[in-house]
Design brief:
single chain; 6 strands; 4 helices; two-stranded antiparallel sheet; Alpha-Beta Plaits; alpha+beta; about 140 residues
Length: about 140
């Protein structure tokens, strides 16, 4: 769901630059989306990501898109993340959304060094528990 697969450069702080060889680190937007998706899906109360038609087709073909339901916009050394999720029935939606924002912010900042300007969470649906089907007792003939 990332709009494009742009690549951005990450500036290294003095400690990183002192221990690294000269060069540039480039991280694709899809990498940031995948990190955000993993962090969000680990939050209790998240039933799944809402990715639309393309994500559903990819899953049916056996490929799981970890960036499904994520939109990333990177500027210089900061990022804005939009996450589209489905929550489990009965959870406190505001609490789940806040936990997602904290988890995604922490993961993005720790793994990429980017500062997150915003993590916007959009609730696209509610997942209801599936009723357990009881098996019919075997009938003796």
């Amino acid at each position: 769901m990332t709009e494009n697969n742009e690549v951005f450069e990450v500036e290294m702080d003095e400690d990183m630059a002192a221990n690294a060889s000269p060069g540039v680190v480039k991280i694709a937007n899809d990498v940031v989306a995948t990190i955000a998706g993993m962090a969000a899906s680990e939050v209790p109360g998240v039933a799944g990501m809402s990715g639309g038609l393309v994500g559903g087709i990819a899953e049916k073909l056996g490929r799981k898109n970890l960036g499904k339901g994520i939109k990333v916009e990177v500027k210089e050394s900061s990022a804005t993340i939009e996450i589209y999720i489905i929550v489990e029935y009965g959870v406190k939606i505001q609490e789940v959304a806040k936990n997602i924002q904290e988890s995604v912010t922490s993961a993005i900042e720790n793994m990429t060094g980017l500062v997150t300007d915003a993590v916007n969470v959009f609730i696209q649906g509610v997942s209801f528990p599936q009723p357990q089907k009881e098996e019919a007792p075997a009938v003796a003939e």
